[in-house]
Amino acid sequence: MSAKLKTSAKSRVAPKRSEGGWRKEIERVLITEAQIARRVESLAREIEKDFRGRELVIVSLLNGTVVFLADLIRQLNLPLRLDFIGVASYGTGTESGELVFTKELCLDVRGRDVLLLDDILDTGKTLHRVLPKIRALRPRRVKTCVLLDKPARRLEKIRADYVGFAIPDFFVVGYGLDFAERHRNLPFVGVLKPHVFKPA
Ligand code: XMP
I need a labelling partner for 77 at 20 to 30 A (CA). Which of 1, 31, 90, 96 fits? Predict the structure, then answer.
């Protein structure tokens, strides 16, 4: 038997998001939910144009890409397969440190069209480490796509083929991005209050 839908007037009203949790740590919304939705849709159109007639392998970097990935693939009108690489950076606070691979690719990407997805291109160290690993597997081509690009902090000579938004040098959270694993579930990208990562 299927579950019955509740039809009371009360249940038809969307519950208000509790703001208490994030307002304490987030200074302001930098990119709204609506702006993200529009940009993800236009990114999907750009990617479709470039990969038309091909089957894509999307390689998504865990964990920060999960929300972006879920929205992007539902906009993509292309045959695709999905795989993940796990990367953790053992740094302090907001500074990235040593990169450790926590999950390796499972799909065979040899001769395939690969789209490598990351949440944010910051110093460039992550993509600089991951790209040669993928290229060594001899794909037909690899393109990179990031939701956010923070060019001011770049240390490696690297750029992404598809960029959602270029942003100034703020530490941002939300829409998959975290601080100490928190705030990934926010539907927008917000600026973290400095006192959170630089305690007085
Ligand atoms: P790099 O410096 O290697 O950075 O290009 C890539 C990874 O570092 C994390 N990162 C951030 N995470 N807000 C975050 O929540 C930020 O402003 C930020 N900057 C870098 C992120 O995991 C990204 O994949």
Answer: 31
pTM exceeding the 0.70 threshold for the entire prediction = yes
71, 113, 122, 149: the active-site residue:
122
Residue 75 CB–ligand 1 contact under 6 Å: no
Query: What is the 8-class DSSP label of residue 10?
Result: H
CA of 124 to the centre of ligand 1 (A): 9
From residue 139, how far is each of 27, 54, 93, 145 by CA, in Å?
Answer: 42, 13, 35, 16
CA of 45 to the centre of ligand 1 (A): 25
Give the span between the Cα atoms of 21 and 75, in whole angstroms: 30
pLDDT tens by residue, 179-192: 999 999 999 999 99
39-76 pLDDT, tens per residue? Answer: 999 999 999 999 999 999 999 999 999 999 999 999 99
Share of the chain above pLDDT 70, in %: 86
Which of left, alpha, beta for 190 (phi over 0: left; psi -120 to 50: alpha)? beta
- Record the tokens describing residue 160, joined without a space: 């992404």
Nearest by Cα to 47 from 110, 115, 98:
115
Q: What is the DSSP letter of 53?
A: T
